[in-house]
Amino acid sequence: MPKKELLETLAKVHRELAGAESIDDETRQRLTKLTNDIRQLLEKDMAESADETEPLSEQVHDLVLQFETEHPQLTTALNQVAAALSNLGI
Predict the structure, then answer these.
(1) Residue 21 is part of which domain span?
(2) Whole-angstrom distance, CA of residue 22 vs CA of residue 28
(3) Torsional class of 16: left (φ above 0), alpha (ψ -120 to 50), beta (otherwise)
(4) pTM of the model
């Protein structure tokens, strides 16, 4: 998935997050920070950011597991983000 599509998927995550009323504030802040971190990473030179990438991938995976049953659309978007990060070598 090209960076442009990943950024569009991150925007989709934000839209899903805004519409999900049953997400607690702490989880909402965690997801918002994660998507912002990914966006910033994509704007940097990826070679310089290699140390940051594994924790981001792990965070995405943890959130996917957390949202799987209660927020299937958000889970789908997060899975797309995880796949895109993997395809970009992140």
Answers:
(1) 3-87
(2) 10
(3) alpha
(4) 0.66
Q: Do the Cβ atoms of 81 and 17 come closer than 8 Å?
A: no
CA dist., res. 52 & res. 61, Å (int): 15
Number of independent structural domains in the chain: 1
How many Cβ atoms from other residues are within 10 Å of residue 80's Cβ? 18
Tens of pLDDT along 23-73? 888 888 888 888 888 888 877 765 555 555 567 778 888 888 877 777 888
Concatenate the DSSP letters of all residues of 13-70 into one string: HHHHHHH-TTS-HHHHHHHHHHHHHHHHHHHS-GGGGHHHHHHHHHHHHHHHHHHTTT
